[in-house]
Amino acid sequence: MKELRNDLPRLRLAALCTALFSLAAHAYMYFTLAPSHDALYSFFADSAEQAFQLSLGRFMQPVYWLFRGRLPAPWLVGLLSILFLSGSVYLIVSVLDIRRRVSVALLSGVLAVNLTVTVANATYLPWADVYMFTLLLTCAGVWLWERSPSWGFLAAVPLLTAAMGFYQAYIDVAIGLALILLIRRAVEGEPFPALCRRAARYAVSLLAAAALYYLLMKVSLQAAGVEMADMYNSPSRLLNGSPAALLGSIPGAYFTFVSFFFAPWLAHNTPAVLLCRGLILLAGLALWIELLRRRHVRGLSLAVVFLCVALLPLGLNFVYVLSVGSTHELMCYSFFLVYPLALLPLEPWDGAGAPSRRPWRLCRAALCLLCGCMILHGVFFANEAYLKKQVVYEASSQYAFSIVEAMDRTDGYEPGVTPVALIGQFEDSYLTAELDELFPRQADAIGIDVLSSLTYPSTFASYCRCILGHPINLLRGEELSRAAAQDAVRAMPVFPKEGFCRMIDGVMAVRLA
Fold first, then answer.
1. Residue 312 and residue 91: Cα distance in Å, rounded?
2. Who contacts 434 (Cβ-Cβ below 8 Å, separation ≥6)?
3. Nearest to 77, CA basis, from 159, 132, 135, 40
4. Backbone phi, then psi, for 503, in 5-degree steps?
5. Phi and psi (nearest 5°) for 138?
6. Residue 259: which H helix or E strand, with range?
7. Beta 501-504 vs 507-511: how paired, if at all?
8. Do strands 473-474 and 501-504 pair parallel, antiparallel, or not at all (unpaired)?
9. In a 3-state reduction of DSSP, which class is residue 409?
């Protein structure tokens, strides 16, 4: 507690900057009701949703919902997200011993305003605070590593286990911070045997947490009578994958990491963003080379630095390997730890200060300015994305209401009883053409790149049940395929033309596109 009191100025700065940047970028979504995609499908975390999260190995989420509640009120989710993220940012700057106020402020912005957080708020709001709490637990575990070399690696195991029980992908944050810490200690001159012992403690803690997570996951599945899901985001990918498949995923982990930041074919990598990131890379490399020269890092210490840098893309994207080649924007938060690494050379090392010659001062200023530009771009990007989400949600709401109204007027239709066959996808409707021109493609991210909040049939059923109070009995699988194959259905006009829905052989057929 005494150390925390002495560190209150840095804590206050990290919390204040994180809150300000978060509100600037994400307050729009925290004061708006515009659920879509999975957020609409899981608008209310009922027993079926809790069982589904258990099947994905996320056994801690139902426990969390007991405290927060099962309805994701946007402002409450936002408030909790900011609180948890503020704690996480402070723990990161504390662990990495980042003290310059400008660096703390920039890291607060980078970690609060990025694509992963924007996608979480835009499309997966019921889990946005869950992800940030997962990040807080992970960072707390790493903080315990550094708190005490003797017992910290064991005390961190329950926290890292709980973090994986919320959302497994954030274990990459712990791996990335471990590699950055090894780089820092090597540059500070820690002896090679001590570095090896430190790395061994990190590895033992992570492996023990993984083993405990697996045990608790099996127990929770057995107790709830739920089978593990066989999906891209389920632990079954690891458990059913062969060693050859896991090893074969390693090149892909490097490729997806580099592509995330520099691939011009990804919509969020605009020319301006690519230019900023390229200059940040060059400035960061130059400052690191100068730091290694000033610190006279040689021999095994230099080898440790090079090895950790080479492993960093793999460590930050290790979940890609564990899931045998699966990737998602929600799984990429750890990627943004490259920014703390880039800013570390700006810190004073053993009181010697940063290089004072004019070229290096300009390089430091340029690096800070470029990071600020990335934060500003993230604020603009997030607000444009949220505006699009609101417009698309309101349009989708009108479509859904019109369809339900038309079904209710049809003789023989009984809500919640009559089978309903939705043929086609909402986003394939010609009605979305105008929205496509108004909102150009922003990102290759589910929920941001689509023009309908109703992205699959179950989201329509959830909207009807949770928002309109209209139960609906959707056909799925083979029954839907048989209904869609009928000649009478194929001859129907598409929504919103007259006759887009009608009763055919006891089934309410609705042709969307």
1. 20
2. none
3. 132
4. -85, 125
5. -65, -45
6. helix 250-262
7. antiparallel
8. unpaired
9. coil
Distance separating alpha carbons of residues 164 and 209, to the nearest angstrom? 8
pLDDT (tens digit per residue) in 378-393:
999 999 889 988 988 9
SS3 503: strand
Residue-wise pLDDT for 248-293, tens only, equals 999 999 999 999 999 888 878 889 999 999 999 999 999 999 889 8
User: Measured at the alpha carbon of residue 276, what is the angle toward residues 439 and 348, in degrees to the nearest 5?
Assistant: 135
Q: What is the pTM of this model?
A: 0.93
Contacts of 294 (CB under 8 A, 6+ apart): 349, 352, 355
Q: Taking the CA atoms of 408, 412, 415 and 418 in sequence, report the sign of the dihedral they define.
A: negative
Spatial separation of the C-alpha atoms in residues 411 and 111, rounded to whole Å? 55
The alpha carbons of the chain give a radius of gyration, in whole angstroms, of 25
Alpha-carbon gap, residue 42 to 466, rounded angstroms: 10
CA dist 88 and 134 (Å) reads: 9
Residue spans of alpha helices (H) in 335-456? 338-343, 358-408, 433-438
User: If you count them, how many residues does the chain have?
Assistant: 513
Q: If residue 502 lies in a helix (H) or strand (E), which one and from where to where? A: strand 501-504
Dihedral, CA of residue 329, residue 331, residue 335 and residue 337, to nearest 10: 130
| Of residues 346, 225, 331, the one with CA closest to residue 284 | 346
Q: How, if at all, do strands 419-423 and 507-511 pair?
A: parallel
